[in-house]
Hints:
Blueprint: H1 4-18, E1 23-28, H2 41-45, E2 52-56, E3 59-63, E4 68-72, E5 78-83, E6 92-98, E7 102-107, E8 114-118, H3 142-149, H4 156-160, H5 171-181, H6 194-213, E9 254-258, E10 261-265
Antiparallel strand pairs: 1-6, 2-3, 3-4, 4-8, 5-7, 6-7, 9-10
Helix pairs in contact: 1-6, 3-6, 5-6
Amino acid sequence: MPELPEVETICRGLAPSIVQQKIITITIYNNKLRYPIPKNISKSLAKQTIQKIYRRGKYILLTTKKGTLIIHLGMSGTLQIKPKNHPSGKHEHFILTFANDLSLRYKDPRRFGAILWTNKDPLKHPLLKKLGIEPLDNNFTANYLYDRAKSKHCAVKQFIMNNEVVTGIGNIYANEVLFAAKINPLTAANTITLHRYQILAKEIKKILRSAIKHRGTTIQDHTDSHGKQGSFQNKLKIYGKFDENCCRCQTKLTHIKLGQRTTFFCLFCQNN
């Protein structure tokens, strides 16, 4: 599933092509996604101009005068810019065509994503209103994590992946930041000291910013708005390292299932 860096990369790539562009046509080939595409979406979007594109957690928001298009990419979704006359491809379920002769195409083989519409404050939409703090905001600090963790007995990896605590950190980056901070992912969140959270908060910001700089991580499906893969997979220190040795101490890495997700860690480096 695309995480914060991948979604941010897509938003930044789309902006030059669609912001301040008028929507000419809306084409829906399949409205059966995770949630059905609203029946009135074509009427709502017709002749509207995209005013802004931005990200909230893993959601992409396209604002117009009449309302906001909310997009989630699910497990395998992509948003790409193509010429308006480019033939529609397999699994392209939703297409917006603009006055500049470009089209925005939503492709989703697994159909776990979502395309929704609201004419109210999008941040109060049921899918967004409970999202936690953005990890790259100035207000995301060690003190914030430490305070939120006081009542959390869950593993710290599950704690930082909880979208109501901090939004956008998925499995790939949770593994990477905990390895960088030398914190065992199984450690109970409420037992970690403020000092360790200072290290962790710093590594979260550092690694997410680096991943954005490298246009995200492409393991299987992720491509940016022009179909190019990210390159942060070449920077990964622990995620996906089955049967390999730790890059710091050469101890054989451990992997287990935690909350249905594969979790990688070094028993020597991450020993508390």
